[in-house]
Amino acid sequence: MEEKELGLTLKAAGINSLFNILKIDKSDRFSLLRFARIIGISLKKLNYYENSKKMPSGVDLEKICEATGLSPTQIMLKLGIIDYNLKTLIENNSEKVFRIVESQINKEKPKASLPPPMAYESKSGTLYQGDCLELMPHIDSDSIDLIFADPPFNLNKIYPSNIDDNLKSDQYIKWCEEWAKQCIRILKPGGSIFVWNLPKWNTFMAAYLNTQLTFRHWISVDIKYSLPIRGRLYPSHYALLYYCKGEKPAKFHPDRLPMSVCPHCFGDLKDYGGYKDKMNPNGINMSDVWLDIPPVRHKKYKKRNGANELSVKLLDRIIEMSTDEGDTVFDPFGGSGTTYAVSEIKNRKWIGIEIGPVEDIINRFKNIEDDAENLNQIRKGINSLFPEKTLQRRIKNGLWTPESVNRKKQKYSTKSNY
Ligand SMILES: C[S@@+](CC[C@H](N)C(=O)[O-])C[C@H]1O[C@@H](n2cnc3c(N)ncnc32)[C@H](O)[C@@H]1O
Question: What structural domains does the chain harbor?
Answer without folding.
Answer: 3-104 (no CATH), 118-257+292-380 (3.40.50.150), 388-417 (no CATH)
